[in-house]
Structures are given as structure tokens and as C-alpha cells.
Amino acid sequence: MLTILIRSLILVSVAVLTFRLMGKRQVGQLQPFELVIAIMIADLAATPMESLDTPLWRGVAPMLALILLHQLITLLSLKSQRLRAFFSGRPTVVIRDGRIDYEALRKLCFNLNDLLEELRTGGVLSPSEVGTAIMETSGRLSVFPNSAHRPVCPEDLGLETGYEGVPLTLVMDGRLEKHNLQLCGKEAGWLEKHLRRCGFEGMEKVLLCYMDTNGWLSAYGYGSEAPVRVKAMDGKEVSW
């Protein structure tokens, strides 16, 4: 039993390492060749795990070889558009200005029921509301409503908007995020002062605290109370 446990831990660790080395995109949206590699890795990890007679290296070595193969294909795809199209395919427009391209659907083996389901998933009820729909190489359908059906944005109303970036997490689970605090150009004493303004006597009392690009600091406690927000910086001081 102990042998099976150790072999399983080793194989799972190698499989996780393999996916990590392939990059985050490999996990988020699989290209065709990446899907094949993922299936092969799962099979290679399962065989030595099930059979104690199979040497461990027979599962680990092929997985490491697949890492090298993936990196090689990725490098070739970066260098050549033709190879990129060969390994990953090309995006295909399936709806143009509300008109369904049946020939494109036929080549993709994508039926109308699937198309309508994807449109509903994207918040569109009718193909006539679509300006453009593109089948991506990952198999996802990108749907863009036409100008008459898309939400109104500030630009349509002639309104000017300021910069809006990603909020910086300063405290998480009671622990200071030192790197993010340095990006703010502030020190721990400054943060503790503003946390006291929010009613927290120490960082260990804070579940989550973040600073948005307008200079507002939001702090959440471990209870069910609403978050407390205070103005901690001038928006002009924001540099991240």
C-alpha cells in the first residue's frame, strides 16, 4: 500500500509539473495538439499507477519527452504562421452581420443547435442580433453583438473616463502582501494606520484588503459585516 501511495504521489507531481511547464494557456484553453498531449499524459500517469510491475520510469520518461515536444511545437508555432495554422488551426467566422455561414459550420462539423446554444451562453437570443461570431482555435465561440444590440458605453454618450486598472491586494488571510505594498510606494505603518480607520487593530484581523486605482482602500473582516472603504490615496498618486 505504501509503495502504491509513493508511486502515485510521484506520478501526480510529475503530471502537475508537466502542465505547469506547458504554461497557463495550456490549462485555460486547449489547442488541438495540446489536447492530444494532455490525454497522453493522463494515460502515461495511469499505467504505472495501476500496475506495480511497470517500472516508474516508463511513465515519467515519456511525460518529460512530451514536455520537450510541446515546447518544440510551441516554438515552431511562434516562428511560423503556417505551422501555427497546421497545429492549432485558424479562427473561422460563422456569423457575419446576422447572416449564418452554413458552409463554415459544415466544415467545422458544428450544427445549428450547438450554434444557438453557444449564442445563448454568450447572452444573445437571436442570430440576427450578432454582428460577428468567430469560432476560435480553442473551440470557443466569440460572439460580438451588432451596434444596435450592444450595451451603451461612456464613449457612446461622449463621456470621458479616467484610468481604471487592477486593484492591488495588500492583505490576504491576515498576511501582508509586501510586493504589492511596495508597488503602492507605501510602508506597513501607513497601511496599519488606514486599517485602524477601518476599525481593524491589526492585519491578522483582516480577511482581505485591497487598493483600487482611484485610491480607495477596501477592507473585509472575518465576519459577515460589509466591507469598509476609506480614501487612502489620491488617484493621481496611483502608479501601477
Briefly say what this structure is.
By secondary structure, this protein is α+β, with helices and mostly antiparallel strands.
Structure description:
This protein has 240 residues and is α+β, with helices and mostly antiparallel strands. It contains nine helices and nine strands. The strands form two sheets. It has a five-stranded antiparallel β-sheet with strand order 6-5-7-8-9. A four-stranded antiparallel β-sheet has the order 2-1-3-4. Strand 7 and strand 8 form a beta hairpin. Helix 1 packs parallel to helix 4. The protein starts with a helix and ends in a 9-residue tail after the last strand. The model has no long low-confidence stretch (mean pLDDT 85).
Structural class: alpha+beta
Mean pLDDT: 85
Radius of gyration: 26 Å
Helix content: 40-55%
Count of strand segments = 9
Show unreliable segments. Answer: none
Give the topology string: H per helix, E per strand.
HHHHHEEHHEEEEHHEEE
Widest sheet: strand ordering: 6-5-7-8-9
Anisotropy-based shape: flat
Largest sheet: 5 strands, antiparallel
Tell me the fraction of residues in β-strands, as a range: 15-25%
Tally of individual helices: 9
Oligomeric category: single chain
Distance between the termini: 52 Å
Q: What's the layout of helices and strands?
A:
Layout: H1 2-22, H2 24-28, H3 32-50, H4 57-79, H5 81-88, E1 92-96, E2 99-100, H6 102-108, H7 112-121, E3 130-135, E4 141-145, E5 168-172, E6 175-176, H8 178-184, H9 188-197, E7 206-211, E8 216-221, E9 228-231
Antiparallel strand pairs: 1-2, 1-3, 3-4, 5-6, 5-7, 7-8, 8-9
Helix pairs in contact: 1-3, 1-4, 3-4, 4-5
